[in-house]
Amino acid sequence: KDGTAKLWNPFRAVESEILPDSKQLAWFSPDGARLITLNGDGRLHRWHTRNREDMGMVGPNLTNDQVKAWTISGHGETLAVGMENEDIEIWNLKTGQREKSFPRAIARIAELAFSRDGALLAAASLRPTAGAADQATLRIWDTASGAVAGTYPNAFRPLAFSSDKHRLVSTRLVGRVAVWGLGSGRSIAGLQVNITWVGVFS
């Protein structure tokens, strides 16, 4: 609400603690011990939640005009960044170094999503405001090899992988929700609803 990240203890009736200069929660470890925020300097910062210690910044400046989308893997160790020039950069958040890039990945990158284990990365194009959509608006990569694992037409944000990596949710240009079978490369289910965000897809 006020543009700051706060840390709450749900079992105590006390006000939350503000993490200094933090603007947005980016990742929380399953055990609650580690936290990553996007700070006012445009960089990701790692925190120990027990003593509220800022362990330092890592990765590129994510508020740069050239950055169009970014996401962090479920284990908190890998960052994917979609750039204006259509490249996708893969960063190691343990070392703070860029490990690889997927050149000319997809036009008008609007959203990125990792599978739960970080083995797959999906990228969706910006939804067009008028006219026909590009043929390839959603691609999936094997993050280890950089090989394209799937290409899908007329598919847009938001994105979410199923926990078993066999399916992916997106929206279609006409406003439908589509469930893609990653083995077959086809839409296997759909819903006639409009959504703006997907939290969990089992």
Q: What would the keywords be for this entry?
A:
202 residues, four-stranded antiparallel beta sheet, globular
Describe this structure in words.
The protein is an all-beta fold and 202 residues long. Helix content is 0%, strand content 47%. It has no helices and 18 strands. It has strands at 6-7, 17-18, 22-28, 34-39, 44-48, 53-58, 67-72, 78-83, 88-92, 97-102, 109-114, 120-125, 138-142, 148-152, 156-161, 167-171, 177-181, 186-191. It has a 4-stranded antiparallel beta sheet, with no helix packed on it. A hairpin with a 5-residue loop joins strand 7 (67-72) and strand 8. The mean pLDDT is 86.
Task: Give a topology summary.
Blueprint: E1 6-7, E2 17-18, E3 22-28, E4 34-39, E5 44-48, E6 53-58, E7 67-72, E8 78-83, E9 88-92, E10 97-102, E11 109-114, E12 120-125, E13 138-142, E14 148-152, E15 156-161, E16 167-171, E17 177-181, E18 186-191
Antiparallel strand pairs: 1-2, 3-4, 4-5, 5-6, 7-8, 8-9, 9-10, 11-12, 12-13, 13-14, 15-16, 16-17, 17-18
